[in-house]
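Recap quiz, item 2
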Amino acid sequence: MHLLNLKTIRIFYTIAAAALILISGCGSDEKVPETKTDTSKKDTVSGTADTKSSPGKDFFYMKSSSNNIACADCHGDGTNSDRPLTKYFSDIKGADKRKSTYLGKFTGDDVKKTAGGATLCWEAYMKMKTPMTPEQIELLNGYYASLDTNDTQSEVTYETIALPQEDRAKLKTEQAEILKLTGDPVNGENLFNNACGLCHGENASVKKVPSIIEDFDGNVKSITYNVRFGDGAMPFYKLNLLSNQDIADISAHILKINGK
Ligand code: HEC
Ligand code: HEC
C-alpha cells in the first residue's frame, strides 16, 4: 500500500509539474537531453529547491524507452533513497573522481569515457539498442561532478561472485548453503518487495521481465543463480547487502506464493 501511495503522489506531482510548465509558457531555456526516451517521469517527489532540475539530472532520472527503468531507480544521488533499489547498488556521488569502477572493469581514461561504467548499465539494464552518445556521457559526468560530496574514494568495493568473472564453484557452495537454511517467507516477502518488486512484484513498473509470482517453475538453486550472477537486465546482488539467509527467505516467499 505504501508503494501505491508513493505512486499516486508521484503521478500527482508529475501532473502538477506539467501544469506548471504549461502555465509558465515553456519559457525555460534548459536543454532537454537528446534522446527519444520519455522525460516526463523524472523525479519530482524527492527533488527539492537545492537539487534543481538540470539536463544531467533529467537524463539520470529518465525512464528507458525500452523497459521503463531509470538510472535513478538503481543508483543513489543523495536525494532518492525512497527508491528501494538504491540501497543495493553504488551511489554515483563522486563517480567522476574514481580511478576504477565496476570493480576494476573500467580504469584510467575509460572511467570518464564510459561515465564510470554507465554505458554498460545503459545497454544491459536499460536495454537501450543504441550506445550512449558522447553528449550523454558528458551530461552524466557533469551530473556526478555537480553533486555535493565528501566521497573521494578512488574505488567502490564490495563482495560479489559475479565479477570479474562469474565464479561457478562459489555459486555451487552458496546454493548448497542456502538449501540447508530454513527460509522465513514473511521476512522474505518484505525483502522481495524491496529488492525485487520494482521488476517482479504485483505493481512492477519495469517491462520485459518474466513473472516469478505465478507459474514459476524454478527452485532455490535457480533463484540463487539469478540473484548472485544477475541475468540480462537483472542486476546481481552483493554478498554483503543480500545475505544467504535473505535469499533463503526470499525463496521461501516465491515458492510459497507459487504453491510449492
Ligand atoms: C537495474 C539497475 C541499474 C540501472 C538501471 C543502472 N545501473 Fe549502474 N550499476 C548497476 C549495477 C548492478 C552495477 C555494479 C554494482 C554496483 O556498482 O553497485 C552498476 C554500476 C554502475 C557504476 C559504477 C560504480 C562504481 O564505481 O563501481 C556507475 C557509475 C553506474 N552504474 C551508473 C549508472 C547510470 C548513470 C545509469 C543510467 C544510465 C545506470 N547506472 C543504470 C545497476 C544499474
Ligand atoms: C531491474 C529489474 C529486476 C530486478 C530488480 C530483479 N529482477 Fe529478476 N529478472 C529480471 C529480468 C529482466 C529477468 C529475465 C532475465 C533474462 O532471462 O533475460 C529476471 C529473471 C529472474 C528469475 C528467473 C525467472 C525464470 O522464469 O527463469 C528469477 C528467479 C529472478 N529474476 C529472481 C529475482 C529476485 C529474487 C530478485 C530480487 C532479489 C530479482 N529477480 C530482482 C529483472 C529483475
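The longest strand covers residues 100-101.
The pocket of heme C (ligand 1) is lined by residues 60, 69, 71, 73-75, 89-90, 92, 95, 98, 101-102, 115-118, 121-122, 125-126, 140, 156, 235-236 (CB under 6 Å).
End of item.
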